[in-house]
Write a structure and sequence with these properties.
Helix content: 40-55%
Distance between the termini: 27 Å
Bound molecules: D-glutamic acid
Shape: globular
Largest sheet: 6 strands, parallel
Structural class: alpha/beta
CATH architecture of the largest domain: 3-Layer(aba) Sandwich
Radius of gyration: 18 Å
Length: 274
């Protein structure tokens, strides 16, 4: 079989990476994709770096064993902790994370260079977004905020309503309040793949003048560029998606459809043991 027919392997700690899968499907409809969500061990974002690296390398190894032509780490937390280890362990497979594409999207979107990144505790503590944005845009002023509770809220399917808005207000009021700084940040980067479904609730808190960006569309474009560069782009035909989870296929299908934006049947989801 020609390598281009092999699937692209996507990994996330849970269902958030399905927001990236949705963008990849839209940008690259011919690609076969295998998605693995490590729902049994979610959340990764509150764990220490060594644990995140260990879990990520182990889970991604499962995708590699199944046969993939490229790896996309559709999890900011795993990207920020484990990208170098993944590239070393699984060379020569191309491994793309979501942090560089996210940083690029934010740097392009911001007029003033004042960018707020919201992400998990582990991603914010790692400082990867600060570094990545400053590499692209040295004049930027980057402020990071860990928004830990957004992950369980999104996994629970609570994407909007008073609880989400009040949680967002508590996390962000000191950053986006007009009294705090004038003119204030003009861009909010969703540095966690679980956050895009919360966008309407976040919009109500930060107002209409702030650009809200995430890494999904830019990541899909970067995947395309990498597939072309490696000569493994699949052209023609309709791609298929295979869904793997480490726990509770029924829940993955039910809640995952909210991230994916289309129905997902439990029979489409396979249980894997790491
Ligand atoms: N989806 C993951 C990310 O993009 C975070 C979820 C978790 O804490 O495991 O960082």
């Amino acid at each position: 079989m020609n390598n281009s027919c092999l699937p692209v392997g996507l990994f996330d700690s849970g269902m958030g990476g399905l927001t990236v899968l949705k963008a990849i499907n839209a940008c690259l409809p011919a690609e076969n994709v295998t998605y693995l969500g490590d729902t049994a061990r979610l959340p990764y974002g509150t764990k220490g770096k060594d644990t995140i690296v260990r879990y990520t390398v182990q889970a991604v190894g499962k995708l590699v064993d199944m046969g993939v032509k490229m790896l996309v780490i559709a999890c900011n937390t795993a990207t920020s902790a484990a990208l170098p280890s993944l590239r070393k362990n699984f060379a020569p497979l191309p491994v793309l994370g979501v942090v560089e594409p996210g940083a690029l999207a934010a740097a392009r979107a911001s007029r003033t260079g004042q960018i707020v990144v919201i992400a998990t505790e582990a991603t914010i503590t790692s400082g990867v977004y600060h570094q990545a944005i400053l590499r692209i845009r040295p004049d930027a002023q980057v402020l990071g905020r860990a928004c830990t509770l957004f992950v369980p809220l999104a996994e629970e399917g609570w994407m909007k309503g008073l609880v989400v808005e009040e949680t967002a207000r508590r996390y962000l009021k000191d950053v986006f309040s007009p009294a705090v700084s004038t003119p204030g940040p003009d861009t909010l980067l969703l540095g966690c793949t679980h956050f895009p479904p919360l966008l309407p609730a976040l919009r109500r808190i930060v107002g209409n003048s702030v650009q809200i960006v995430d890494s999904a569309a830019t990541t899909a474009q970067c995947v395309r560029d990498a597939l072309v560069a490696y000569g493994i782009l699949r052209e023609g035909g309709e791609g298929t998606c295979r869904f793997l989870t480490t726990d509770n296929q029924g829940r993955f299908a039910q809640k995952g459809s909210l991230f994916l934006g289309r129905p997902l049947k439990p029979s489409e989801v396979e249980l894997v043991d790491l």
